[in-house]
Fold Ferritin-like domain-containing protein.
Amino acid sequence: MPALNTLHDLYVKQLRDLYSAETQLLDALPRMAAAASDSTLRTGLERHLDQTRVQAQRLDSLFMDLDCTPGGHTCQAMRGLLAEADELLRRDAPPAVRDAGLIACAQRVEHYEISAYGTAAKLADTLRLPHHAERLRLSEREEQAADLSLSAAATPINRAALGPATAALR
């Protein structure tokens, strides 16, 4: 495990954490999209998969700029968040309830990514890497937009998940 002697070392560690998070998502999002019964949710997850590929490429370019490699680190936070999503997918649930659970899992992921990109952008600012900060903030805004999209999808899906026993709550 490399030492963290400088702010630059910490910045590279944060970028590696983000890269690991994004590559883990590249594996998980297809499973999540395939499990979604709501077409809007499925399309949103598939669109985010495409966006995740672009974000990973963006991070690759930052590593090239720094002349270092992205590998050698596993984002444990993302591993845990995706383990929760996998657990949800193994459970027996009505389609709308599963979709509501997928949204919950996906929003936790988005919130983690929003925080991680914001932190890395602030470090890039401090290190006087404005090009890096700009690219990281672009990814942060994309994650915020994905979160808002999930929130919009949640309203009808959550209502559908109420089921007939709780129809009066609609």
